[in-house]
Specification:
Chains A, B, C, D: NADP(+) binds at residue 48. The structure is a homotetramer. The first copy, chain A, is built from seven helices and 18 strands. By secondary structure, chain A is an alpha+beta fold. Chain A has one domain (5-348): Chorismate synthase, AroC fold. Chain A has a five-stranded antiparallel β-sheet with strand order 1-2-3-7-4, with helices on one face. In chain A, strands 9-8-10-16-11 form a five-stranded antiparallel β-sheet. In chain A, strand 14 (277-278) and strand 15 form a beta hairpin. Chain A is globular and about 65 Å long. Chains in contact: A-B, A-C, A-D, B-C, B-D, C-D.
């Protein structure tokens, strides 16, 4: 495999399987003398942690992060930061029965066909558990962006199944409810939906909205490494993400140019159809992104599949799973945004008339 | 600037402004002994060429490509391939009046804020003209993918404004109509729409569908450099693209897991909601992608903006522009797909149990 | 910091300070289904281990490696391999007295000036201890090169101070003596020299010769990423290396072209002045490299320096140090060669007429 | 091929064969608003130009550079800079007789074995002519380093064959003599040597010394991407370079630690054995480098070789060649240094406590 590294100047490289000894990562490119401790990371991990509520997988992981290097006396030294999170509550025995079978909707089939081998325990590297290190790295980037640039990355669930939340109602509410929504009025509907889905042994998709506030102007690159392109890449690299929109996204198909272009007056933009990015560079407006997450494929409803010998099989997936994987993707999406922004902002320091 | 290179093993680097002397690129990583000549590239360029019909910008460019290196006696040598396309029909005088003014919806504002300088003639590097080299490089990748792997990349317009085409009707029709659609029955509607839009001095958005046929299984990487992530990156790097969907895309939000996961029986997938990518790797099914393109911002309707001195201005954009930039984006999208696939396929040669 | 990653397809990223909790690394790009266990790595680490003889630093480190991911049932899975080595025998108190003082010949001064902070305990990231992960990663690459390609990398001390060994006398002897030399007849001289140097509280430089046997032809790239350039890079990245020669190295200055060019007859080269690399690509002959290592700067002789307040100071460096750091660099050099070759060989799979 | 790009933030990518239509390159990452025109580049190219004196190849190339993009009204715009140099005086007919024969000491054999094809005309991509674009890119970097940081890169011939020049005698003399030496007293000896070598139909090696003045402190990276490692890489990527020394280089083998470590007093280093780099970072002292260049392999003395059918052949190389390729390597070495420094200095802007 390659492709376990993201970033050019702020580089995050990760390792680890769902049921291995530990997951970990290396954050390279962190500027020096920045205050950092394990608690800064832990509090973000706790938001993503499984087993937090009945709406997510009951797997209980402490997800205790350890910083192994790169921080001295509470400050980053400029050297690479090694982090590690040990796995505790894994039951690999749950997976013995599927070791030769490809779970539909999962990476089992493609991993096996590519590598000729796969760590089937809990999905191995393809497990959503892989994202724990993304969140840890994102916490570092996020702290830096907030403290040095006052950049705020807000992410919340804007839709689950057919329940469409009113957006941006109460941003403070996001961290106070198990669904990461801003619209208190939808709590009961979603609660009911998730309970039903769970009872059916099924799962449901979701939509996440992301808003980046206080963006400096001119972050990004004009051609291939556009800020929009790099954000799409980093978000699409999250398991289960199937769509990314910047600004008006797919709505632009039926817009007129006169409607879509954001006019400027008195030094401010009169609208934000672009989602805060023009020509691959940030405009200084809020950056607006939407992503779509597919329903968890691990459900307890029986279905058709084949095994590694190409024999037809029926499968019911046991184990502990999220009825709506989109919910726990909120802090992950936020982290990926932070990692990508951090990289672009550091690159920006080397680009303009020095 | 940085970010003018795409790819890790099959690397494409480009340069060139809309009204500069020439645009060009370097294709590095091309395997040796592959038959290649200028005509192979030229025929793809001709599809993208401006001035082909009344539906696109009347700028007339020959877009004559020259291969400067890397090919000897009709075969690639394995060395880097230099290509160049000279600019001919540019009228920079059209742009003198906007040299201090930011055209809304364009990169003028962000480039100027970032770099403190911009080549305002025709949009400089931010012009859609930049994509001519993408198409040239894509033509090389495309030929290789087709001849060595029989991979076919099909791209067509599936929607313009509110006119939704029936999909996949007649793929041979794509290259026989000026809108790159497959649905003959919509020709008149679209013709009328574009003429109206043009008369109004306005523009309209579009949607492109992409299908990749005959994909080998296992192409891609499992974590950050997922095939889906890299495709989203390369497509989002095209000017005007505001949304990318893989497979069912945003429809997954309201799908159940039991509906979305693609069951397998008799060694074939029973559906393709995933769009041919699971866990970041190709499944061997068709890869299905949709992208949204915003309406051209250069329109002749007056609007509000500011100049570099932050003074309010009214602007009417003259010059020659596409009423629907989405149409000409079809060969560009196809090229970006080809470049990205080529990179992943070459990387794949170095990954599995050797 | 950035630059903690080496390689393009076979990527090694490392972290860790001399007196931190642990050192570790991520090896990304390892082909799948290759047999690998901790013992494969451990046996190479044991060669580099400090405290092995009176000729090296008495610091006692178990250097017990743990593989945290990427291996399943004794085979690589193709996913990124996380490795970790905990620090045990560190006495940071040894270093409190030098926390504000720059040790001459060390990175103290430059790290402090660059980052505004440094982990002074044992040299932090600049310690030779950093190389333990290089050796671990190199062990993996080395095993692959040997088993899949029969490539053998031999490295030995060819000179210490003014004692010049006869080369290539007995390659089996290398691992049987504490100096990694091939020339048994020089054991006593070197033993005496090192004891004297130690008694004087001083240190001495060394030269390492490297021979790569059974190289495939055509490995490398023609322009910037020449095999020679990449080997020079990877060797010069080892602490204390101050010179690199390929083939005849500095001797070519006074050679005639008629003497230096390696003639070919009966399909074999009649000489090997080139050191097995022509035009950046391997010729299939043995690759021959020499490197020069400076004497350890940490010695117990007093010298002049300044502290962080620019005040003149006298310093005597305590702690436990190698009288000839070159000796322990032998397995490190071998590892860097293996890592670089591995990367080039994997890249080669994607380059030629496929 | 891959590997035609150097640099991470300041990236130079090149193409072109000796007898192709043109050579060219793309410089990406140049900061904006920097004054640049073709004359800035041309004057450096003129120093490298063949046919300047009887001591170098009589091939006459105008080497007229054209800037195709990235500069507007005399200032860089921050976009990628495309440059091109057309080939004029090539006589490919000279090479028809060697099209199936491998010239000893050349890349003919390795290119053919790797790629299965080679452009034999003038050595194709392996020709020293490839370096013309390095010099052009280096000229841009050099101008920036000088004007923004007052960094001066000095390179000169310090030895040809057995004639060892006294160093640093008269730096102004370098550009006033055809050998790029500083020691006027050796002019006649070298002149005589070169004439003799030429008469014999042979060639001779050379040594180049490089001094970088006014280096900022702390440029570089601590682990793999050490400044020393990156300089070694970029210099070893020049055709014919077989050895690189930083500071005392191979002399350190027989030095004591007490002699080698550079003591510090009154805020200055008392010596410069390190060559201005400690722990991979610049110390602020002069950076001192030596490189060794092998004698040209293209000489008119007959020798043994084989052809592509493995048949023994005798060969006499015609065509126009340098009796001492080291001489023309002086501006090339300077350029590679400039390109590498530029990259590291731009990266440095993103690294430290921001």
């Amino acid at each position: 495999m390659s492709g376990n590294t993201i970033g050019k100047i702020f580089c995050v490289t990760t390792f680890g399987e769902s049921h291995g000894i530990a997951l970990g990562g290396i954050i390279d490119g962190m500027p020096s003398k920045f205050p950092l401790n394990e608690e800064d990371i832990q509090k973000e991990l706790d938001k993503r942690k499984p087993g937090k509520s009945i709406y997510t997988t009951p797997r209980k992981e402490e997800d205790k992060v350890k910083i192994l290097s790169g921080v001295f006396n509470g400050l980053t030294t400029g050297t690479s930061i090694g982090i590690i999170i040990e796995n505790k509550d894994y039951k690999s025995s749950d997976y013995e029965n599927i070791k030769d079978i490809f779970r539909p909707g999962h990476a089992d089939y493609t991993y096996y066909k590519k590598y000729g081998i796969r760590d089937y325990r809990g999905g191995g590297r393809s497990s959503a558990r892989e994202t724990v290190i993304r969140v840890a790295a994102g916490a570092i980037a996020n702290k830096f962006l907030l403290e040095k640039y006052n950049i705020k990355i807000i992410a919340y669930i804007s839709q689950i199944g057919n329940i469409i939340c009113n957006n941006d109602i109460d941003l403070d509410f996001i961290d106070k409810n198990p669904f990461f929504i801003t619209d208190k009025s939808k709590i009961n509907d979603i609660d009911l939906l998730i309970r039903n889905i769970k009872k059916m042994g099924d799962s449901i998709g979701a939509k996440i909205k992301i808003i980046i506030k206080n963006m400096p102007i001119g972050i990004g690159n004009p051609v291939f490494d556009k800020l929009s392109a790099c954000l799409a890449y980093s978000l699409m690299s999250i398991n289960a993400v199937k769509g990314v929109e910047i600004g008006d996204g797919f709505s632009v198909i039926n817009q007129l140019g006169s409607e879509n272009r954001d006019e400027i007056k008195d030094n401010i933009f009169l609208s934000n159809h672009s989602g805060g990015i023009l020509g691959g560079l940030s405009t200084g407006q809020d950056i607006i992104i939407n992503i779509a997450l597919k329903p968890t494929s691990s459900i307890s409803k029986e279905c058709n599949t084949i095994n590694i010998h190409n024999q037809n099989k029926k499968i019911i997936i046991k184990g502990r799973h999220d009825p709506c994987v989109g919910i726990r993707a909120v802090p992950i999406a936020k982290s990926m945004i932070a990692i990508t922004l951090m990289d672009h902002i550091l690159i920006n320091h080397s680009q303009c008339n020095i």
